[in-house]
Design goal:
5-stranded parallel sheet; Methyltransferase, Cobalt-precorrin-4 Transmethylase, Domain 2; 11 strands; Cobalt-precorrin-4 Transmethylase, domain 1; 6-stranded mixed sheet; about 250 residues; alpha/beta; homodimer
């Protein structure tokens, strides 16, 4: 595998959970050699500090209330630098997403764009937040006796409409009984934790199931709240980003 | 975080899928500085080549028909080197598992032992095979329109008994309908792929669901077989270790 960024290629890569020590060797080398770096909002400053001083770093997430660049805008930046249409030289582009790029990273759109545009690209995996959090908590995610399945899911909150109450759309809601021998990891669970817990209990998860909410995982601001689904309260959980672990394996 | 291995500590760490470039910076540094390395059977020679020349490397997996060291034997080695009872100096011990140590790695037993024995330990995450395989295949594991859940599971095959036919125990078998909007990743699926596919179809997964079987992922011997559950045949899949991806997101 090439470990030095090549011109005219986009690397769709995972920056891991935040701690630069959890970057892969490959991503660290790409970061040090890429001409252009396009980081998502959750990629930390500590990770970006490894970029070459001569690199053009263009944050493409929303932060501090700045308007978010659109997905089309990200595509345009990849094209502009990796395959310039005006005759200027092609550059190496590192598109950096937090965690792993293929898990809840909306990679499908970028893969489709790069394929359609004929821009060469490679994908480089990263440590997903769940693995870093479990390592920090020293808790297994699977267990031969209590958790033979590990489920990653997300929860969306529909924007409140003038004529309706805010509505929770919980994608891990199951048809039928929720598997009792699973560890559930919720990415982007929103902020309505009590409502979320009630939905999960209604989906068949035992109310006494242990639940850990981790805010700002793998950063100095990390905040951990241990409870059960029955006792989960909105105010006890730290600020976003939050990751929730639910199951009997996470004692 | 410490990146140099310290005496008297066990690092329970993930070696990733095989390619040394997919080690984290932290694990690479621990590998270069640990006194003792205890690798599982799937940790590759390319990864172990990064160990210090002065390190004592003791493989603790089964390979080439050699008898497997028992779990108790692994515990004894950790104790012997990290917390010697005979007055000899404590060493740094890197317990290296393939992939991530907390996913299907039987970490629970080792965590319980280290805790009970009072041996300090840290856990360091790794890239799980599913992420490396998906990156190689350039396929998303989640998709906003077709896969809002990612499920990791495993399948066990009970040993055939004299008076009974070989029996498949498929842990991802669901009570109720299998979620239609999930990507299923099967670790250690065994070798009876046709039976496995039939069980999954009986669990409610559409027979036309795409299915990719990857043998020896992230190594030069990697072999990829793309099919559907309906068309999966035992003989078409490469040798172990095999990882199976099943779902509509993996087009």
């Amino acid at each position: 595998m090439t470990t030095t960024a090549q011109s005219g290629i986009v690397y769709l890569a995972g920056a891991g959970p935040g701690d630069p020590e959890l970057l892969t060797l490959r991503v660290a080398r790409l970061l040090m050699t890429a001409d252009v770096v396009l980081p998502d909002d959750l990629v930390t400053d500590e990770v970006l500090a490894l970029a070459s001083p001569s690199a053009l770093v263009i944050p493409v997430g929303k932060r501090c209330g700045q308007p978010r660049i659109t997905q089309a805008g990200i595509h345009a930046l990849m094209l502009e630098h990796a395959d310039p249409q005006d005759g200027s030289p092609a550059r190496s582009v590192l598109r950096l997403k937090s965690g792993d790029p293929l898990v809840f990273g909306r990679a499908a759109e970028e893969i489709a764009f790069l394929t359609d545009a004929g821009i060469p690209f490679e994908i480089v995996p990263g440590i997903t937040a769940a693995f870093a959090v479990a390592a920090e908590l020293k808790t297994p995610l699977t267990d031969r006796s209590s958790a033979s399945k590990l489920i990653f899911a997300t929860a969306h909150h529909a924007a409140p409409q003038p004529d309706k109450p805010a509505r929770l759309e919980l994608t891990p809601k199951w048809e039928g009984a929720f598997p009792p021998d699973a560890t559930l990891v919720l990415y982007m669970p929103g902020r309505r934790f009590r409502l979320l817990a009630d939905e999960l209990i209604a989906s068949g998860i035992d109310a006494h199931t242990p639940c850990i909410a981790v805010s700002n995982a793998s950063t100095p601001q990390q905040h951990i709240h241990r409870t059960t689904l029955a006792a989960l309260e909105d105010d006890a959980v730290g600020p976003a980003p939050v990751l929730m672990l639910i199951g009997h394996a996470i004692r």
